[in-house]
Amino acid sequence: MLSGTQGLLFVLALSLLSICAQQSVGRVTLENGVKSKVYLSPKITQHPGSVSNKFYYDIEFPKGHIAIKSFNAEVVDEEGNPVSLQETYLHHWVAVRYYQRKGIKEPKYNGNLGFHQSDFVIARNAGVCSKGLTQFFGLGSETRKTDTHVPDPYGIEVGNPLQVPNGYEEKWLFNVHAIDTRGAVDAMGCTECRCNLYNVTEDEYGRPLKPDYVGGLFCCYDGTQCKVKNGVQSVKRNLYLKYTVEWVDWSDSIIPVNIYIFDVTDTWENTGIHDCLIEFNVEKNENANDFTSIRRSKASFPISGDVVYGAAHLHSGGIGSALYGEDGHVICSSKAIYGEGNEAGNEAGYIVGMTTCYPKPGSIKITKDEVLTLESNYSSEKSHTGVMGLFYILVAESSSTLDASVQIHQDSVVPIFFWGVSVFGLAIFAAVVVSYRRQRQSEDGYHSISTST
Ligand SMILES: *[C@@H]1O[C@H](CO)[C@@H](O)[C@H](O)[C@H]1NC(C)=O
Ligand SMILES: *[C@@H]1O[C@H](CO)[C@@H](O)[C@H](O)[C@H]1NC(C)=O
Questions:
Q1: Which residues contact 249 (CB under 8 A, 6 or more apart)?
Q2: C-beta of residue 109 within 8 angstroms of C-beta of residue 175
Q3: End-to-end CA distance of the chain, in Å?
Q4: Which atom of ligand 2 is nearest to 376's Cα?
Q5: Which range of residues forms the domain containing residue 307?
Q6: Are 113 and 107 in contact (CB under 8 A)?
Q7: Deepest of 159, 166, 270, 389, by most Cβ within 10 A of its Cβ?
Q8: Is residue 178 located within the same domain as residue 289?
Q9: Tens digits of residue pLDDT in 375-411
Q10: How far apart are CA 72 and CA 39, in angstroms?
Q11: Considering the entire predicted model, what is its pTM?
Q12: Does residue 449 sit within a domain?
């Protein structure tokens, strides 16, 4: 995919990585007014069976008041070659926007730091979960073959100085969760975070796991080790999340879109609160002709607008997912694309892409307070642990409601809209979610990122 010169630059850039923690690859390129740049995350060191689930603060990101047009990523090795999911399973990556008080020391890599929450606030997407799933962008194993481009005339507005509170700067963080399954006794089991394979009885914070907790993020946190075959050598290697961002400079001709993420575990229908649990398990169906396990949740929608884009996030075993309007019409249906070979981007047994929706502008509308239904289908031919059912849509707010919110927020430092992009939620946020529960604080309308204390 890279041309010769780009490839060379890429290798050179990578070789500098031993010196620099983070290094963008090449320059900004311009095509039809769209700028594009390739970046590398900080180094991710792995060995067979290892799990890396780290937070990287203040990642490289395009500067200025811009509209994001696409955000793609993949795992590469030190030579810049794509790494197969069969070697390193990309459980998820998410990019989260936050505001950091000026003059505060940058947090070091890792999730488990304490922050003064007033120094560090998440500038989240537009909804709908009340905690977690705050990211603008994010995907997992499907990242190589899932379209993320935002069609014209729409864009995800970021870097608007008027939205950043006084004394703060806008920054971005990554959470990347990668599982090295080379030499694993049960590679799929490692990717599903089955607790028995990780020899884990306590979560990341030393709290005992419930006996019925058989798999999920609490068993494959940073530094855990999945079981590998006897005799497998523990050879370290360094990887990077390579991410490509496309954007245009902000202008009045761009129609901003809001990012919404729905979760099939959202308890809203029963509790009235968008408690998004992120993960669930699929039980094996022992005796049926139909091996489809269907799960549904409902959520009322906060604004009126036009759907511009939609895509689901599922884990292995996932079949498809759809979002329905209150009268039952399909807003978007997104299906899992499985690989069929061994090469990166086509790994057999793994979801390598999700189909997406680009409705004809104005053809799919959602109205304020409409109750939407999310449906996620998994195969129950085998049991699955720690799977997810998320749905990500971009919505351009109808002009009438847009004008109203502009007036309401005119003299407020709170971002008028939390446009963004985000995709999947990633479980990543399990860690954030835990403390977020304890430390929830929204007096200024932001959400704390604090992850410990
Ligand atoms: C599993 O964990 C226990 C206690 O943490 C440890 O004693 C044991 O050696 C571990 N087993 C393996 C196979 O790593
Ligand atoms: C889920 O499965 C049911 C039953 O097979 C089917 O009717 C429905 O269309 C499926 N939904 C999606 C989104 O694939």
A1: 35, 64, 65, 66, 67
A2: no
A3: 45
A4: 13
A5: 271-406
A6: yes
A7: 389
A8: no
A9: 999 999 999 999 999 999 999 999 754 444 443 333 3
A10: 10
A11: 0.84
A12: no
